[in-house]
Amino acid sequence: MKRVKKGPADFRAMPWRNGLGVTREMHIAPEGASLGAGDFLWRLSSADVAAGGPFSPFPGYDRVLFLLSGEGMDLSVNGSGASLAEPYSSIAFRGEDDVHCSLRGSPAVDFNIITRRDRLACAYELMDQFAGETPIRLAGDITVLLCLRGEVDVRGALQERLRAMELVILEDYETGTALSIGGPGASKVLRITLTER
Predict the structure, then answer these.
(1) Which of 37, 41, 118, 193 has an alpha carbon 20 to 30 Å from 184's alpha carbon atom?
(2) Considering the entire predicted model, what is its pTM?
């Protein structure tokens, strides 16, 4: 099983495509791909959102946006309203959708998954009920485990401790590979599964 661990020191600060802010690129694949060239298959990022405005367009990609902190944000997606009012709430939309956001108060921090629609399917699960160790079985072609809060220990086919905003990317594993995740009850982990189409 191939694994890559990353933390905040590895993330790259990059300007938004629309020039209205800066994001921290946590991972982009394949190696050598870039946001500007539009040749990437998937990307993980986090941004500090200090003001509302339009989202950058990404035709042909699917997006999932999570609110990590702040008082929330209200979104307009093709004219329909939606809200991210609580930390760790999320919304999925297409990269070509017309999306605008406005903040409910203080600046917010978000997390974004973006995947190329014709090449990858994306599933995700927020894990936050750790009683001892929680067993999981790997599926799809790529799994990302991202610790959003606290710290957790991943055991089984690999041994990793993940602290807040650290992640591990797993590839080349057998479907059904068993792992367990354990940590304090307040910890939160986002499990992302990418499957080739």
Answers:
(1) 193
(2) 0.94
